[in-house]
Specification:
Blueprint (H helix, E strand, L loop, with lengths): L3 E10 L5 H11 L3 E7 L2 E8 L1 H13 L6 E10 L7 E3 L5 H5 L10 H9 L40 H8 L20 E5 L4 E2 L2 H13 L4 E4 L4 E5 L4 H11 L8 E3 L2 H7 E2 L2 H8 L5 E6 L5 H4 L4 E5 L4 H9 L4 E6 L11 H7 L6 E5 L11 E5 L2 E6 L9 E2 L7 E3 L9 E4 L2 E4 L9 H17 L6 E5 L5 H7 L5 E4 L1 H12 L6 E11 L5 E9 L4 E7 L2 E2 L10 H13 L3 H4 L9 H13 L5 E2 L2 H11 L11 H9 L11 E2 L2 E3 L1 H12 L4 H27 L3 E5 L6 H13 L3 E4 L10 H14 L5
Parallel strand pairs: 2-5, 8-15, 10-13, 12-16, 19-22, 22-23, 24-31, 26-30, 31-32
Antiparallel strand pairs: 1-3, 1-4, 2-3, 6-7, 6-15, 8-9, 9-14, 10-14, 11-12, 12-13, 16-17, 18-21, 19-20, 20-21, 24-25, 25-26, 27-28, 29-30
Bound molecules: zinc ion (ZN) (2 copies) and fe (iii) ion.
Length: 755
């Protein structure tokens, strides 16, 4: 037998997911000698043996890949045998090699669920995990990723766990959170009357009973506390709304399993794959069978997820409900609670019971949220089980700190040619969230040994993220909000060239001091030029308008039809008090506190109000979401509009009013309106192509979370001959801004612009 040798380089999500032990077991199983090691670009394997054995080994890598691992690049090179006698796992050579190993949290695997039914030490033990599953980022305090650097450090491994942890062929080899009933953490249930139930089976039964009885229970999750209740009990769901101070925003549900979810929700193959993936995000799905009305509040979709902690599975075994409401454990817009004592102080008094455990959560992560459009995953909130996976850039971003935007904030740091996005932080206008931001930046600095050299922030001087960056005492760059959105999508696809950027969102400060948000840009990573935009309309009352979509309706109608609007179209103003109308008309006529906006979000607000769908908004983007929900997607027709230096919807409003008067259904009008915006996208893109020859189009901005708008724009642009890019793994809302800022700053630095 001739001995040959090969060097295999693998890129992808292959670190911190039990990949090296997997390779070790596979290589020894095939009788190969060699090494496996991590470095900051991925995993490198050296093997020597017969070419047949190596061939089988290579085939098995892809065939038997651990669930949470994924391979993006696989290169095999010839090498020379070294005469090695065995296979070994090499230690990481440097700190920068260890940094990329911070894995996101992984849902409990089927093997562990099986162990919980068969292994005496782990019978029904809810903290069972292995190298393929369990908590990661949420429990990591520092690097290198070792047990004593995690919140598991206080639990001393029992001899049996230690044996598994050190047994190189064991599934728990180097599984840092390894634990069993003898040595690991435990749950306890605090009841209203002051009693504490510590017996696991007892507390499981009591929790199930409480939920069935229609009360609210606080439950400690993986990245923070949850509040949970019966989604078929409208009274309880209403109580939950009151408790959280949450008006109309739909609640997420956790279903017993995929089959049960399928009974209540429509899902295609891509959606089911996402729902059942090891990341277990909340997936937005169309409702088939109704829940209590207060759960989804008029929308036709709901956020659904499947059990991801062992405890979730165990609860459903006892529970006589197909699903539970599982919403973040916080009051109004504060960050989710992670601390046991805070939960007892803030949540316990408001709920019937608090289910907690004694392993600390170090890094707060919310449940991630995603939907599927054009068969592609679209992240809306990138947090649990996604953060802090790095994003590969085509640029050196070392030492760059990107502050992000204001709402749905997320920041980013550059390490070598990778961007590491923080978990979802939230709305920085909230004091507690700002503290979470500051603390997380500090933690990322330490965890990733990040030494900021250059900061980059939004142009908006009042964003608290901008202020934070300006106080870091390092050079600071500003990137215009919508340029950052487009750059975010470009970074996701490794684009670094001039192209057409179409960015629709709610708000962002423009270069001219107006509010932008319906933008057609010609840009590369370095520069951006505004080619065209939605017509400027006054936003009466500034930011406050977002809670009152009818004011935007009045602003649009006033813009096109002047002060006569009330006389000409009295039917659209029914129910709006005279004084309120007068006050807004005063703002519009005088321009007092009424900045100009070209925002797509505000346009959708105005139309939603015009159709009487949403005149008062209870949560962010409710009006556009409700407008999308009623749209008849079979409608092919569209309204007229004008496109030149700006895109004007005067004719659109005229025709919509006509349709309204003629009694055309809201579903049809909404469908036609969506088509109109899509046509504006395609026509303007064609104009830009005519003048510049550019044929790549990048779509980004929060408005592209509208599935109809996104899918149809992509489809029509493609059939018009454009190559289209839209965000997938990075949110198109402001949660993706930091990545764009980072990419722009890296490019500018490469070009040598800032000193
Ligand atoms: Zn496992
Ligand atoms: Zn143990
Ligand atoms: Fe934005």
């Amino acid at each position: 037998m001739k001995t040959v040798a090969k060097k295999i380089k693998i890129k992808g999500l292959v670190q911190g997911v039990g990949f090296r032990p997997f390779i070790y077991r596979l290589a020894t199983g095939h009788g190969l000698a060699g090494t496996v090691e991590n470095n900051n670009t991925g995993v490198e394997i050296f093997v020597e043996s017969s070419s047949t054995a190596i061939g089988n080994f290579i085939k098995d890598i892809e065939r038997k890949l651990p669930e949470a691992a994924s391979i993006s690049k696989f290169v095999v090179d010839e090498s020379s045998p070294l005469g090695l006698k065995s296979f070994t796992i090499a230690k990481s050579r440097s700190l920068s090699d260890e940094i990329t190993e911070v894995s996101p949290d992984i849902a409990v695997c089927t093997n562990c669920l099986h162990d919980m039914k068969t292994q005496p030490r782990r019978l029904a033990y809810p903290f069972t995990n292995c190298t393929n599953c369990g908590p990661r980022f949420t429990i990591i305090r520092d690097l290198p990723y070792d047990r004593d650097k995690t919140t598991m450090s206080v639990f001393e491994m029992c001899p049996d766990c230690k044996k598994e942890y050190t047994g190189i062929l064991d599934r728990r080899f180097h599984a840092q959170p390894v634990a069993c009933a003898v040595c690991g953490p435990h749950y306890s249930l605090l009841l209203k009357d002051g009693r504490t139930v510590n017996d696991f089976s007892g507390l499981l039964n009591t929790t199930a009973q409480l939920l069935q009885d229609g009360v609210i229970v606080a439950v400690k999750g993986l990245g923070g506390y949850h509040l949970t209740c019966d989604p078929f009990n409208n009274k309880t769901v209403d109580e939950l709304r009151l408790l959280k101070g949450r008006e109309g925003k739909p609640f997420a549900l956790m279903f017993k399993d995929a089959q049960t979810a399928g009974d209540y929700l429509f899902m295609n193959t891509a959606e089911e794959q996402l729902l059942t993936s090891w990341r277990r995000p909340i997936v937005l799905l169309k409702i088939k069978k109704p829940f209590a009305p207060s759960v989804s509040t008029g929308l036709d979709t709901i956020g659904a997820m499947l059990p991801y902690m062992p405890f979730h599975h165990q609860l459903f075994e006892k529970l006589d409900l197909p699903a539970i409401v599982l919403t973040s454990g916080n009051i109004s817009d504060e960050p989710i609670i992670i601390d046991n004592s805070e939960a007892i102080k803030k949540l316990h008094p408001l709920t019937a019971a608090t289910l907690t455990y004694n392993r600390e959560i170090h890094n707060r992560t919310d449940d991630s949220v995603a939907f599927v459009a054009s068969d592609k995953v679209r992240l809306i909130r990138r947090s649990r089980s996604y953060a802090p996976s790095p994003i590969q850039l085509q640029l050196n971003a070392e030492g760059i700190f990107a502050a992000g935007a204001e709402l749905v904030n997320c920041f980013a740091i550059g390490k070598n040619d990778q961007a590491i996005l923080s978990q979802h932080i939230g709305d920085l206008q909230n004091l507690e969230t700002l503290e979470f931001y500051t603390e997380s930046v500090e933690r990322f600095r330490r965890l990733f040994r990040f030494d900021p050299q250059l900061a980059v922030a939004d142009k908006h001087p009042d964003y608290l993220s901008t202020r934070f960056a300006s106080e870091m005492g390092i050079p600071l760059l500003f990137v215009q909000h919508h340029h950052a959105h487009i750059a975010s999508c470009m970074a996701e696809y490794g684009l670094d060239e001039k192209l057409i950027g179409i960015c629709f969102d709610g708000t962002g400060l423009g270069d001219d001091g107006n509010i932008w948000g319906g933008e057609f840009l010609v840009c590369d990573l370095n520069e951006s030029r505004r080619f065209s935009h939605f017509e400027n309309i006054r936003q009466p009352g500034g930011d406050a308008v977002t809670r009152h979509p009818w004011r935007m309706m009045l602003a649009y109608l006033h813009h096109y039809f002047g002060n006569e609007v009330r006389k000409r179209f009295p039917f659209v103003f029914e129910g709006i008090p005279d004084e309120a109308m007068e006050a807004v008309l005063f703002l519009l006529n005088s321009g007092v506190n009424s900045p100009f906006t070209s925002s797509a979000g505000r346009l959708f607000d105005a139309v939603s109000a015009l159709l009487g769908i949403c005149r008062r908004s209870g949560y962010h983007a409710e009006a556009p979401m409700q407008l999308e929900a009623v749209a008849d997607s079979r409608t092919e027709a569209a309204y007229a509009f004008e496109s030149g230096k700006t895109v004007s919807f005067g004719k659109t409003f005229e025709e919509m009013l006509h349709d309204l008067q003629a009694g055309t259904s809201k579903a049809t009008i909404s469908g036609k309106f969506h088509n109109t915006v899509v046509q504006a996208v395609v026509e303007t893109a064609k104009k830009i192509r005519g003048q510049t020859g550019l044929q790549k189009v990048v779509l980004s901005g929060g408005s592209f979370q509208n599935r109809i708008l996104l899918e149809r724009s992509e489809l029509k642009l493609k059939s018009a001959g454009f190559t289209v890019y839209s965000q997938s793994g990075i949110p198109s809302n402001d949660g993706g801004i930091a990545l764009g800022q980072l990419a722009v700053a890296a490019k500018k630095r490469e070009l040598g612009l800032p000193d």
